[in-house]
Design a protein that fits this description.
Blueprint (H helix, E strand, L loop, with lengths): L2 H4 L15 H7 L5 H12 L1 H4 L26 H8 L4 H4 L9 H10 L2 E3 L3 H5 L2 H5 L5 E3 L19 E5 L2 E5 L13 H14 L5 E5 L3 H10 L5 E5 L17 E5 L12 H10 L5 E5 L5 H10 L5 E5 L20 E5 L21 E5 L6 H10 L5 E5 L6 H5 L9 E5 L6 H8 L7 E5 L11 H9 L2 E5 L2 H9 L7 H5 L4
Parallel strand pairs: 1-2, 2-5, 5-6, 6-7, 7-8, 8-9, 9-10, 10-11, 11-12, 12-13, 13-14, 14-15
Antiparallel strand pairs: 3-4
Protein name: F-box domain-containing protein
Organism: Brassica carinata
Length: 491
């Protein structure tokens, strides 16, 4: 008897059951689409299909898989945006949401508010405004650098030039780095494109723009509140009056080794007359003198914070102009090689309503400039001096002019001694808090009883004048650092 004759003939026998083939189903039903055939084969091979009776005809009524349904399709965009805003910051900062589907990609673009652009062509093609229509803060500083200014692209170079938030590749034989900037015409064209598509823009950083580009931007972005103009000059400031809602302005004139530009008293006067509602102003690498600073003080009546960074005011006199500021509360002097070479006569040095004075990474060996600055700022309540060179005991003794100091912070003042510190702070009767860090010539062993008594009256005291001695006192008796001495001891 052959094996074929012993085979059971019952239709319910598992040996007679064949697994459905998608090729057979397709050939037996030529009018069926390929997608329906695949779905039917999967359904017939699932465990659920084995419990159902088989039919002679091919059944295409399969169960609907609700797990594959996008239930967010029924939600309006406004509601889905509100849901996405509830996500934690760790998920909001990455692009996982935009990878779900095209709709979520579009919604993620509408949620983005801050962007730092690296490719200016992305702005010129209008893809930036269409992809991210709700941007409120845009930084174009890196995008304003031309990646290929020479026939030999410096992108292949390993030399990366960095200045604060700006970085770009330069070739080893390059001597004029200013040629890496995009032309002003290209920058202005991008600003006009940005103006037409970003009506909600509140903050902008741009390099090498002109008056026309600024006017084209301000025509549509009437709510612009914060603006940073790099490689700024007097001409571009003629269009600053069009930004009627401007509150924070930062002007960068010349940057040594990178680019050169000039902001003189003329530009500062134009600025003062066009932006009377400024609250914060920073002048970096700018020129000017008494007249320009005076015009700002007279016109910008609500200005509360002024920052002078790496100034080129060779004519001097800008300190005397501080007395014309009626609402100034905070003055910051950053990275200045000199304070004021010609502060002017004594009668011009009148007090201003200043509350906070900060001197950071500046040269303070200019005795006349320091004396004038401390006299004009005699009513300050907070004094912060950090990483400044030239601050010896004689220069710091000029701080006795301060009458209302409540907080003082000294960091990185390596020349100042304990005696110089004591001679000044004992005159500050309202002193409440003090911070002394990394001032290596201020020694614990030189603290007098009068200074120790003052420390006990302070509400807050941070005392780490010498980090190495502080660390040594903490490790004393721990045995750390002794075994090495024994191991390397000469025999």
């Amino acid at each position: 008897m052959s094996f074929r004759e012993k085979m059971p003939t019952s239709p319910k026998s598992p040996l007679r059951r064949r697994r459905s083939s998608w090729t057979g189903s397709w050939l037996n039903h030529p009018t069926t689409s390929f997608k329906e055939v695949v779905s039917a084969v999967i359904q017939s091979q699932s465990p659920r299909s084995t419990s159902k009776p088989q039919t002679s005809d091919f059944d295409f009524n399969i169960d609907f898989d609700f797990s594959k349904v996008d239930r967010t399709l029924s939600l309006p965009d406004s509601l889905l945006l509100r849901i996405l805003q509830k996500l934690p910051d760790s998920q909001n900062n990455n692009n996982d949401v935009s990878l779900v589907c095209k709709r979520w990609l579009s919604l993620q673009g509408r949620r983005l508010r801050t962007l730092k652009l690296l490719d200016y062509d992305f702005l010129l093609s209008e893809k930036l405004t269409s992809r991210f229509p709700k941007l409120t803060s845009i930084d174009l500083s890196n995008a304003c650098m031309n990646p290929n200014p020479n026939p030999n692209p410096p992108r292949n170079s390993n030399i990366l030039l960095c200045h604060k938030s700006t970085s770009f590749h330069v070739s080893s034989d390059s001597s004029n780095w200013e040629e890496n900037l995009l032309p002003s015409e290209v920058i202005d064209r991008g600003l006009r494109v940005l103006g037409r598509g970003s009506c909600d823009l509140l903050k902008l950083v741009v390099t090498n723009a002109t008056e026309l580009g600024l006017l084209g931007l301000a025509e549509h972005c009437s709510d612009l509140q914060e603006l940073e103009l790099r490689k700024c000059n007097d001409n571009i400031l003629r269009g600053i009056a069009a930004c009627e809602s401007l509150r924070v302005l930062r002007l960068v004139g010349s940057v040594e080794g990178l680019y050169t530009s000039s902001v003189s008293d003329i530009g500062l006067t134009i600025l003062a007359q066009g932006c009377k509602g400024l609250v914060k102003l920073e002048l970096s690498g700018c020129e000017g003198s008494f007249d320009g600073i005076k015009a700002i003080g007279q016109c910008c009546e609500v200005l509360e914070e002024l920052t002078i960074c790496d100034h080129r005011m060779d004519d001097g006199g800008w300190i005397a102009a501080l007395s014309y500021f009626g609402s100034l509360k905070r003055l910051r002097v950053l990275s200045c090689r000199k304070i004021d070479s010609s502060p002017g006569p004594e009668k011009m040095l009148r007090s201003c309503p200043l509350e906070s004075l900060e001197l950071v990474r500046s040269c303070l060996n200019d005795k006349e400039g320091m004396r004038a600055l401390f006299k004009v700022c005699d009513g300050v309540k907070k004094v912060r001096i950090q990483d400044c060179w030239g601050l010896d005991d004689d220069s710091f003794s000029l701080a006795k002019a301060f009458r209302k100091v409540r907080f003082v912070s000294l960091e990185g003042c390596s020349v100042l001694t304990t005696g110089g510190l004591e001679s000044v702070i004992l005159h500050w009767e309202e002193l409440e808090s003090m911070r002394v860090v990394s001032c290596k010539n201020i020694k614990d062993c030189e603290i007098s009883p009068a200074l120790s008594s003052l420390f006990s009256l302070l509400k807050e005291l941070t005392w780490r004048p010498d980090t190495r001695s502080h660390l040594s006192s903490k490790l004393e008796g721990a045995g750390i650092g002794k075994r090495g001495g024994k191991f390397f001891k000469k025999r």
